[in-house]
Amino acid sequence: MADIEQGTEATPLPDTNGSEALNGTAARFVSTAEGTALAYGSLVFMALLPIFFGALRSVSSSKSKVGAENGYENSSDMPETITSRDAARFPIIASCTLFGLYLFFKIFSQEYINLLLSMYFFVLGILALSHTMSPFMNRVIPANLPNKQYQLLFTQGSGESKEEIINYEFDTKDLICLGISSVVGVWYVLKKHWVANNLFGLAFALNGVELLHLNNVSTGCILLGGLFVYDVFWVFGTNVMVTVAKSFEAPIKLVFPQDLLEKGLEANNFAMLGLGDIVIPGIFIALLLRFDVSLKKNSRTYFYTSFLAYIFGLGLTIFVMHTFKHAQPALLYLVPACVGFPVMVALVKGELTEMFRYEETSPEAEASAKEEKTESDKDK
Questions:
Q1: Which of 3, 21, 49, 38 is nearest to 201 (CA)?
Q2: Which listed residue (77, 174, 259, 277) is catalytic?
Q3: Which residues are paired to 4 by β-bridges?
Q4: 277 counts as catalytic
Q5: What pLDDT is stored for residue 5 in this prediction?
Q6: Residue 283's CB: how many other CB atoms inside 10 A?
Q7: Which of 26, 108, 95 is closest to 237 using CA atoms?
């Protein structure tokens, strides 16, 4: 989703974290070969981080089916399972959202819309970055540091009709993560600096890969296939996606300056990669890692195959974009690579049927099935 773009802006842009697409000879700033290579290489590296670590963390989250009993004390930490129906509807919902944003930017003041979006992503970014940092903080903070437990509980009603609305448990380490994330959030809101943008973007991507679970490979193929068409249409068929990407001031993309070597941290000629081009293939790669684990063969064949396929697809996207000087829909290259390579490996190994039969059940569906089985046993 979104696209890979190469920036051209050479003057300071204090109110934006993006850049305009390269249009050949119209560029006022010509990037050096070193600067371009550094920008592209950094984008690829940053894209791989949330996929790799998010996939590893998704294995742990998939084993947590009953909240605190398995280590997930809060409902916000529970993975969300995507079914085939969700996958089929997603490109339609995404298209409506994209076109709605396009109309908003055309009708209303861009300044006020982006102010609202900045505040919205300020809150989401702090929570996402805090959740991302939490496992690392547990290893960094000394074990002898006092770690108090807290609980935020909101209920509705009283007596037997009392219903929990919010039940969130956290500790001192979580508060430290929240404090650090808040500093990054204030930095982003005030400066819109590309480093702060990337910190939030990486956190969003990692959380997406970790907590969005495809229930099977068929669902993954439906989702990637639908978004393949979505991406190609909105990039090549219209100017809607490029317009929204240039107008939308939010950490929904990773950016890296091509003039970093010349201007340092104040550089502002950005190449960019949309988070959708990380999260969508990433949740499919994470599914294949969980499939590897289910085989119990102590190998990660499908995960490494799809991971290398992602690198190949992203590299091909950058090559085509750099050759033709035009923003590219990355899923045009990523989807065939990330789906095709693992399928070919499964064909060679004779595990294609087993791959497509692999099924993950959501915690809600599993609990419902257990209740139905218990009631059935009682009736007998």
A1: 49
A2: 277
A3: 273, 328
A4: yes
A5: 61
A6: 24
A7: 95
pLDDT in tens, 241-278: 888 877 778 888 899 998 888 888 888 888 889 899 99
Q: Is 144 exposed, middle or buried (0-12, 13-18, 19+ CB in 10 A)?
A: exposed
Residue 90 tokens read as: 């997603």
Distance CA 190, CA 180 (A): 16
Contacts for 246 with CB less than 8 Å, ≥ 6 apart:
18, 19, 20, 21
Are 292 and 303 spatial neighbours (Cβ–Cβ below 8 Å)? yes
Do 240 and 327 contact (CB within 8 A), yes or no? Answer: no
Give CA torsion, residues 184, 212, 284, 306, to 10 deg. Answer: 40
Count the alpha carbons within 13 Å of 301 in the hemisphere toward its beta carbon. Answer: 17
**Backbone dihedral angles phi then psi of residue 169, each to the nearest 5 degrees:** -105, 135
* Residue length of the chain: 380
**Nearest of 275, 283, 290 to residue 213 by alpha carbon:** 283
Backbone angles phi, psi at 318, to 5 degrees: -65, -40
Q: Which of 273, 281, 375, 207 lies closest to 17 in space, CA to CA?
A: 273
Could you count the other beta carbons within 10 Å of the beta carbon of residue 342? 27
Q: Quick one: pLDDT at residue 7?
A: 57
Measured distance CA(62)–CA(75) in Å, rounded? 14
**What is the pTM (predicted TM-score) of this model?**
0.82
Rounded Cα gap, residues 38 and 289, in angstroms = 30
DSSP 8-42: ---S--TT-S--PPP-GGG-SS---HHHHHHHHHH
Dihedral, 312, 318, 322, 328 alpha carbons, nearest 10: 120
pLDDT at position 113: 81
Q: Which two tokens stand for residue 216?
A: 């099977």
What's the CA gap between 341 and 312, in Å, rounded?
10
- Residue 362 neighbours by CB under 8 Å, 6+ apart: 81, 83, 213, 215
Per annotation, catalytic residue among 3, 77, 174, 231 = 231
Region 215-219: mean pLDDT is 93
pLDDT computed for residue 4 by the predictor:
61
Residue 189, judged by CB atoms within 10 A of its CB (0-12, 13-18, 19+), counts as middle
